[in-house]
Amino acid sequence: MVKYIADSACDLKDFPDICFETVPLTLSTDSRTIVDSPDLDIHETLDYFYGHHGRSYTACPSTQAWIDSFEGADEIYVVTITSGLSGTWNSANVAKKQYQSDHPDVKIYVVDSLSTGPGEVLLLEKIVELKKLGKSFEEVCEEIEKYKDTLRLYFGLRSLHNLAQNGRVSKIVASAIGFMNIRILGTASKEGTIQSVAKCRGDKKLVETTLSEIRKADYKGGKIRICHVESAQLAQALEDQLRSEYGAIDIKTIPARGLCSFYAERGGFILGCEC
Ligand code: X90
Fold this sequence. Notes:
Helices cover 39% and strands 26% of the residues. By secondary structure, it is α/β, with parallel strands linked by helices. It folds into two domains: 2-149, Rossmann fold (3-Layer(aba) Sandwich); 150-274, Hypothetical Protein Tm841, Chain: A,domain 3, CATH 3.30.1180.10. The strands form three sheets. The protein has a six-stranded mixed β-sheet with strand order 10-9-8-13-11-12, sandwiched between helices. Strands 2-1-6-7 form a four-stranded parallel β-sheet, with helices on both faces. Strand 3 and strand 4 (33-35) form a beta hairpin. Heptadecanoic acid is lined by residues 25, 58-60, 82, 85-88, 115-116, 153, 155, 168, 188, 192, 194, 260, 263-264, 270.
C-alpha cells in the first residue's frame, strides 16, 4: 500500500482517492496543549491565544507519532514543514530510520519542503500526480527534488508576534509592524527560513507588492495554492489579480489549519507557486 503523509502545517485535511494522513504539531501555553487535528476549531483557538497573556509555544510531532502513521504501508511519502524553522523534518527522519530497522523492505521518502502550508500542498499534489503516472519510488524522489527548486513561497502578515516570541524572526523586524495598517511581505529563503521583502501599508498595497514579487520571480502561469487565516477576502483579491493578469491558471485557496494560523496570525496569507 502507498501512503501519503504530511504534518499539519500542510493545511490539508484530506486528499481524495489516496491514502492520506496528517500528523499534528501541537500548540501550547503553560496551561493548555492543543493538538492541531483536522477538526480543530481555528476561530476558537485563535481567540484563546489572543486572550492568553503568558508565553505560547509549538512543538513538532514526536518520533512515535510518525511511526504510528507509517503502520501498514510499504511505500511512504512524507512532506514536512521546513527544517529551517522546525524540528519536524528531523523527527520524521529519526522515525524513518527506526521504522526501517524493524521493516527493512518499507520504502520511505521524507521531503523537506523548505516551505510550509501551500508549498507542502504543491509537493504533495506533485507526488500524487507522479505516482498516478506510474513512476517508481526512486523516480518520484528524484523528480520531487528537482520540482522543489521551482517552488516559491510568499506570505503577507499583520503581526509577527508569535514568530518573534518563538525566535523565528528577530524582535527588531517584528516591532516594525503592528500599527498604522502595516503588513509585512516575506518569502522563504533557499534555506527555508524567513526573509522579509517589504513593508506595505494596507491590504491593497500588500496585494500589489505580492503580485510584483511574483512577476519578478518570473512566474509564467504555473499552479498556485493559497492558505489564509480568517482572511478569505484578501485571498480572493490575490486570486482576482492573478487571474486578471495570467488568465485561466490553476489556483486554489484554503483556510490554514492550526500551526500556520498560530504563526501567520489573523489577517495573514501564505501563497505558494510554481515558477
Ligand atoms: O516545530 C515547531 O514547533 C514549528 C515551528 C514552525 C515555525 C514557523 C511556521 C511559520 C508558518 C508563517 C509564514 C511562513 C514562513 C515560511 C518560511 C519558510 C507561517
